[in-house]
Amino acid sequence: FTFNGVRTDTWSISLKRDGIITVTQKFESANWTGPSDQSISTAVATDPTRSHNSFINGRFLLQAATTVTRVHYALEEIDIMFTPGMVHIPDAGGSQEGTVGLMRVPPRLWATAKLKARYDQTLHANATGYWYNRTEVQLVAIIPVFGTSGASQRFVIFDIGTAVVVGVPQIADEGGRKVMTLTLHAKLDERNAAQTTDAQRAPLRIAVM
């Protein structure tokens, strides 16, 4: 099959303790062709897939956006969903089954992060305070993926520079354990007033170092 006029609906990243780091993407096409030989001449490169990366030994920073002192909390799960807000433009004479292109429309939620952690009085108090006072926060997840120390170690970093807590943090019983969950909505990064590039303003940044 060949899918034409494809738009990205959502893509998400799931980080769960002792689980494999996974990325899920959802696309929507205007039409498709096939099934048949599409005569795609581009060669597909061999992918020497290495070992999958597990979500262990990570560090997580959750703090007010204006705070420079690093504040680490023990989290069990992080799910980040990115919504670019793209829709097909309807047009009866459009080249792709009545569509003529794409445009971005509101509401733009950018990225939504859902966090799960064992109950911690300090985390709960701080997160509730962030929600009550509408405090902008920042979230950084640092996951080691290769090597053990020094120059050989590599990390994947997920950085949400400016976000707000949506709804009061929830507490629940899970098999006799008290856990808490909270949701963040990312915004354009506003920490640096002198931002000049899209990367500096991005609501979500992913880095490998």
Q: Count of helical segments?
A: 2
Overall mean pLDDT stands at 81
What Rg do the Cα atoms give?
20 Å
Approximate strand percentage: over 45%
Termini separation (Å)? 37 Å
Briefly note the structural class of the backbone.
mainly beta
**Would you identify the regions where 5 or more consecutive residues have pLDDT less than 50?**
none
What is shown here, in short?
By secondary structure, the protein is mostly beta strands. Helices cover 8% and strands 48% of the residues.
Describe it.
The protein has 209 residues and is mainly beta. The protein contains two helices and 13 strands. It has helices spanning 121-132, 198-201, and strands at residues 2-4, 7-16, 22-28, 31-33, 59-64, 77-83, 86-90, 99-104, 110-118, 137-146, 154-174, 177-186, 205-208. Strands 2, 3, 5, 6, 9, 10, 11, 12 and 13 form a nine-stranded antiparallel beta sheet that branches. It has a two-stranded antiparallel sheet with strand order 1-4. It has a two-stranded antiparallel sheet with strand order 7-8. Strand 2 and strand 3 (22-28) form a beta hairpin. The longest helix has 12 residues, at 121-132. The radius of gyration is 20 Å and the shape is globular. The protein starts with a strand and ends with a strand.
Write the layout of secondary structure elements.
Blueprint: E1 2-4, E2 7-16, E3 22-28, E4 31-33, E5 59-64, E6 77-83, E7 86-90, E8 99-104, E9 110-118, H1 121-132, E10 137-146, E11 154-174, E12 177-186, H2 198-201, E13 205-208
Antiparallel strand pairs: 1-4, 2-3, 2-6, 5-10, 6-9, 7-8, 9-12, 10-11, 11-12, 11-13
